[in-house]
Specification:
The chain is of the alpha/beta class and about 240 residues long. The chain has one domain. Helix content is about 35%, strand content about 15%. The strands form two sheets. A five-stranded parallel β-sheet has the order 1-7-6-2-3, sandwiched between helices. The two termini are about 25 Å apart.
Length: about 240
């Protein structure tokens, strides 16, 4: 999404007033452009307790050791991941629109809603945000990288953050959507490499950013690439889990 695309969106707003992306009702006044207060209240948030490794929500408080079904065989290269929402209902719809319906501008409001989560915001503060890269063919087809859009919006709103295009995707892979857990891991296992324009600094904390964390395979592969290049402290985050 370019500056001209955003400008076109602004001109359209003058002609066709915006409706909330969730309620489909006219937007109220406020800083968010596509998500009303009523729509915000309908987003399925993740609250503590959540898995310390992948951010998967636990329903109810647990005593003793927590065993997360998503982490039993994950052994991720990232230390900890956190997500703000469950990838359900209106959140899933918004993310689908961002990725497949040429609506990357919706990421700005979803990010603004996500950083209301204190734990999510604290997890990212002071870090270098590394978006999961798209292969150049997919990027050309889509016109933008939604993870990059999310990382940029997060960096603009969280103190001490900056985003870094530290990773490249070496080759196109099959969509993860219809693959099982093991197939997802194999699909992206060696798909990423360090961007030669960016040097990895061992004393910097990197957080790999994606739109959705499902099995963690993509975030794991990205984190492993960073660690193999010398990064000592790598975490992960996504807007939604599921």
């Amino acid at each position: 999404m370019t500056f001209l695309d955003d400008l076109d969106r602004g001109l359209l707003d003058l002609i066709f007033p915006r409706d909330c992306a969730v309620t489909q009702e006219p937007m109220d006044e406020g800083s968010r452009l596509h998500l009303s207060d009523a729509g915000l209240a309908l987003l399925p948030r993740i609250f503590d307790p959540r898995c310390f490794t992948c951010g998967h929500p636990f329903d109810g408080w647990l005593e003793g050791e927590r065993t997360c079904p998503h982490c039993l065989d994950l052994n991720p290269a990232f230390h900890r991941a956190i997500c703000a929402f469950r990838a359900q209902g209106p959140v899933r719809t918004i993310i689908h629109r961002i990725k497949y319906e040429k609506s990357p501008y919706l990421a700005n409001d979803l990010v603004a809603a996500a950083i209301q989560d204190i734990a999510f915001r604290r997890h990212l503060a002071g870090s270098h945000l590394v978006p999961v890269p798209l292969h150049r063919s997919r990027h050309q087809d889509r016109g933008y990288n939604q993870a990059e859009r999310i990382a940029c919006a997060l960096a603009q709103n969280i103190p001490g953050c900056q985003w870094s295009p530290a990773l490249l995707k070496k080759y196109a892979t099959a969509s993860q959507t219809r693959l099982g857990r093991e197939e997802r891991r194999r699909n992206v296992a060696e798909a990423f490499e360090i961007n030669p324009a960016n040097s990895i600094q061992p004393d910097v904390r990197y957080v790999v950013i994606d739109d959705v964390l499902t099995t963690g395979s993509t975030l794991h592969a990205c984190a492993k690439t960073l660690r193999d290049a010398g990064a000592l402290w790598v975490d992960a985050a996504a807007l939604a889990h599921g």
